[in-house]
């Protein structure tokens, strides 16, 4: 297929992998240079848009591919293996596509057509500083021209690459929480690439400021209509990112071991043996490979639970939908706990297969640990583990929507 070809029916996973792997390989080829020189992946996001990756879940009738959630997360892991930054930069876009896919077709169609053409969305949800927990300073205000948006957001992952911003706000007139989907290319929107974290530095995360930004009517969505398994979905993207970091670390270190000439006199292969034949070194990589494999399998199993939640959202059985959403949230949380542990062990332990030269900044191997550690710090896993235990022992329903903010000291 050429980049302009469109699917006429939903493809198989093998067909999708065949289509996108060349793009992923191209992205992977420049990952180290981008990391060393702090080059944001504008071109790489463009390649994915051009190839149709950003429209994976968009129905074929609207110019997309119509993939299942399992297919999407399988491919997202492949992308994260190429570059975790690029995969996470699409987190909010993929979630907004899911939301508009679940919405009644009359509401979602205008957005699905835009996404089918390659337009993408970034994120504007979190407010930092002295904002009290439960408060939202960003406001949507009706005026004689429609709606205006004012406020400031941080952790605006992916926004710098996007045409739209998926924003959480409250209405100034009613106080109701809403989703505002705001066009980025306008005078009232300012974006700063000021993310200062030690990992995932190329995700376009930073500050977005709204000052009288205009909002089209179709971009104003009551928050209570947001797709119900959104928290599980957002975590699944991070699980895919963590899995990709582990797979990439195993890949990179295996290549270095295969080519390594220097060895240790007291190694298992002896003074004259190549490192690639050292049984202890092979065990290190074999164990890390198993950890990465398990992380992938765990993430895809949780994606199956999210797929069931999508399917029940399209029906009229509220009881079945309630149960599917609980299952999706618990599966995502359980996968998070397992994948965080598996990925962090893998990206750290692989260094045991190399010498001190592996810390050379030219190799940028440290990026795998930094990126995994950063992704693992989102949505604190300790709270998810408590929620899992509370449900198991006491039958307590998991928390679907939560907030962060300041409290009085």
Automatic annotation (TrEMBL):
Coiled-coil residue windows: none
GO molecular function terms attached to this record: 3-methylbutanoyl-CoA dehydrogenase activity; flavin adenine dinucleotide binding
Gene3D superfamilies, per the entry: Acyl-CoA dehydrogenase/oxidase, N-terminal domain (1.10.540.10), Butyryl-CoA Dehydrogenase, subunit A, domain 2 (2.40.110.10), Butyryl-CoA Dehydrogenase, subunit A, domain 3 (1.20.140.10)
Ranges for domain Acyl-CoA dehydrogenase/oxidase N-terminal: 26-98
Superkingdom, natural source: Bacteria
Oxidoreductase keyword on record: yes
Domain annotation Acyl-CoA dehydrogenase C-terminal: ranges: 237-379
Keywords: Oxidoreductase
GO BP annotations listed: L-leucine catabolic process
A Pfam family the protein falls into: Acyl-CoA_dh_2
PANTHER family: ACYL-COA DEHYDROGENASE, ISOVALERYL-COA DEHYDROGENASE, MITOCHONDRIAL-RELATED
Protein name per Swiss-Prot or TrEMBL: Acyl-CoA dehydrogenase
Organism this protein belongs to: Gemmobacter aquaticus
């Amino acid at each position: 297929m050429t980049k302009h070809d469109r699917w006429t029916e939903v493809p198989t996973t093998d067909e999708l992998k065949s289509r996108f792997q060349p793009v992923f390989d191209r992205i992977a080829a420049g990952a180290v240079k981008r990391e060393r020189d702090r080059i944001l992946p504008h071109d790489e996001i463009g390649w994915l848009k051009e190839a149709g990756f950003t429209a994976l879940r968009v129905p074929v009738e609207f110019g997309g591919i119509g993939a299942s959630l399992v297919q999407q997360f399988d491919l997202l892991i492949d992308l994260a293996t190429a570059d975790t930054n690029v995969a996470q930069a699409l987190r909010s876009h993929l979630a907004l596509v899911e939301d508009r896919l679940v919405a009644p077709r009359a509401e979602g169609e205008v957005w699905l057509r835009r996404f089918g053409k390659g337009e993408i969305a970034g994120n504007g949800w979190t407010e930092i500083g002295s904002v009290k927990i439960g408060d939202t300073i960003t406001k949507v205000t009706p005026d004689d021209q429609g709606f205006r948006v004012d406020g400031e957001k941080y952790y605006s992952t992916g926004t710098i690459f996007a045409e739209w911003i998926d924003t959480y706000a409250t209405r100034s007139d009613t106080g109701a929480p809403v989703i505002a989907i705001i066009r980025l290319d306008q005078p009232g929107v300012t974006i700063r690439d000021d993310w200062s974290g030690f990992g995932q530095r190329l995700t376009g995360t930073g500050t977005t400021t709204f000052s009288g930004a205009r909002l089209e009517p179709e971009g104003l969505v009551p928050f209570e209509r947001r797709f119900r398994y959104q928290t599980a979905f957002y975590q699944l993207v991070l699980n895919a990112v963590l899995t990709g970091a582990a797979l990439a670390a195993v890949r990179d270190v295996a290549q270095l071991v295969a080519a390594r000439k220097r060895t240790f006199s007291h190694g298992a292969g002896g003074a004259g043996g190549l490192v690639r034949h050292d049984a202890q070194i092979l065990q290190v990589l074999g164990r890390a490979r198993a950890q990465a494999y398990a992380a992938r399998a765990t993430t895809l199993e949780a994606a199956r639970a999210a797929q069931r939640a999508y399917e029940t959202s399209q029906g009229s059985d509220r009881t079945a939908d309630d149960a599917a959403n609980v299952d999706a949230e618990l599966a995502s949380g359980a996968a998070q706990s397992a994948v965080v542990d598996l990925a962090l062990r893998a990206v750290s332990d692989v260094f045991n297969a190399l010498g001190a030269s592996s810390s050379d900044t030219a190799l940028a191997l440290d990026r795998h640990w930094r990126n995994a550690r950063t992704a693992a710090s989102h949505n604190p896993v300790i709270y998810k583990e408590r929620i899992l235990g509370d449900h198991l022992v006491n039958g307590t329903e998991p928390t679907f929507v939560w907030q962060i903010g300041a409290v009085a000291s």
